[in-house]
């Protein structure tokens, strides 16, 4: 688990503005929860009760900046710019049986330029459920109401369902074929992230963003 | 540079509440700045103009939790609980010539149970000045007004001025004597952090906190 920026989030339709394609622009489709006040030392059972809302997130990542940052030992910073959130956040009870065991059991759909990219189930192969993640975060501190905890990129062991980020697909290509062929995002490309209920209705609305070149202030 | 919690800060006189002395409770006396809105890609010169306020901070650290966290490669989390801020934040122009080159040139005074612990100058041996730190943070993101950027523990090469955290004193002891004798903080101990102007008046008021054992909710 790592700490990210909290002062600046992107709206679901906002451009992802990046200064250079050389940064290795990637999306990460995730589920995220919003908590109420969580006391220091709260255990997983009580943490589960503290989950107020669920939403989707695009944890934008700049892959080519990550190795140098992690080598310094203090975690991500420049490699994790502002994240995007779904237009709608919903309460756990609105999810019915799809919300159980601290996991959201529905496929998370990602599209790159309207082409399907991944549809892994957000409840399958999630190593640490949200109650465990919240309890970990609250071990030595209280968490203020409104704290956002992300799942990490949704991924399944089954390669048939695709990936929720380009880096995972590139790694699968490397392991299978000896080289990665899928490129990171370029300016003008679009990413869409959505989750549907069993009747095919959108649960959170869609994150739908274009990657745009940053023009610095004069 | 690393990212810390932003949802929960301690007041200057609040207790530092920790579940166990075995965590290795330490203080870190720092200078921190509060920025206005900083655009993505802002350079150091413009970043300097974006500094709105200065204050002192106690970046409480749980030393014995750090090695396992850093070994995971994603930086601090449980080892850096809520930080404390001075009672007063002041504008750069109120500091006169003590504020220059993006550094605050005054001794930062730390006391453990009213015994002087350190008095290093916050402007001496500061490797990266605040304008450079802000520009680094803003390289791939904008920073919202109210962003807090800390200096890191104030430290001077001159051992005669003491230290702004226990870990540094322990390292100096280890290098000099082959073993560290100064213990981390125990429950009931107090830390005071303050900075005086040339006339001896307190610039920011004092951070003055007691370390207290945490009682979890029933």
Notable traits:
homodimer, four-stranded antiparallel β-sheet, alpha+beta, 4 helices, 218 residues
Compact description:
Two copies of one chain form a homodimer. The first copy, chain A, is of the alpha+beta class and 218 residues long. The first copy, chain A, is 15% helix and 23% strand.
Describe the structure.
- 2 copies of one chain form a homodimer.
- The longest helix of chain A has 12 residues, at 166-177.
- The N and C termini of chain A lie far apart (37 Å).
- Chain A has helices at 44-49, 66-71, 130-137, 166-177, and strands at 16-18, 25-26, 29-35, 51-58, 61-62, 84-85, 99-100, 103-104, 109-112, 115-118, 148-150, 190-194, 207-213.
- In chain A, the strands form 4 sheets. A 5-stranded mixed β-sheet of chain A has the order 1-13-12-9-10, with no helix packed on it. A 4-stranded antiparallel β-sheet of chain A has the order 6-4-3-11. Chain A has a two-stranded antiparallel ribbon with strand order 2-5.
- Chain A is an alpha+beta fold and 218 residues long.
- In chain A, a hairpin with a 2-residue loop joins strand 9 and strand 10.
- Chain A binds chain B through residues 1-8, 17-19, 23, 39-42, 62, 65, 70, 73-79, 81-82, 136-137, 139-144, 146-147, 214, 216-217, and chain B through 1-8, 17-19, 23, 39-42, 62, 65, 70, 73-79, 81-82, 136-137, 139-144, 146-147, 214, 216-217.
């Amino acid at each position: 688990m790592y700490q990210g920026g909290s002062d600046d989030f992107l709206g679901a339709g906002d451009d992802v503005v990046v200064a250079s394609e050389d940064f290795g622009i990637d999306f990460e489709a995730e589920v995220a929860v919003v908590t109420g006040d969580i006391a220091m030392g709260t255990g997983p059972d009580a943490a589960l009760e503290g989950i107020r809302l669920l939403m989707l997130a695009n944890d934008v990542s700049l892959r080519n900046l990550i190795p140098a940052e992690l080598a310094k030992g203090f975690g991500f910073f420049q490699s994790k710019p502002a994240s995007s959130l779904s237009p709608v956040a919903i309460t756990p009870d609105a999810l019915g049986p799809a919300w159980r065991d601290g996991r959201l059991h529905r496929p998370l759909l990602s599209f790159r330029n309207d082409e399907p990219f991944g549809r892994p189930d957000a409840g399958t192969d999630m190593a640490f459920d949200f109650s465990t993640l919240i309890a970990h975060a609250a071990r030595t501190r209280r968490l203020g109401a409104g704290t956002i905890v992300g799942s990490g990129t949704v991924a399944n062991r089954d390669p048939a369902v695709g990936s929720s980020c380009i880096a995972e697909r590139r790694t699968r290509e490397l392991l299978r074929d000896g080289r990665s062929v899928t490129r990171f995002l370029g300016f003008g490309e679009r990413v869409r992230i959505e989750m549907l209920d069993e009747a095919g209705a959108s649960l959170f609305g869609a994150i739908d963003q274009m990657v745009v070149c940053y023009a610095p202030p004069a």
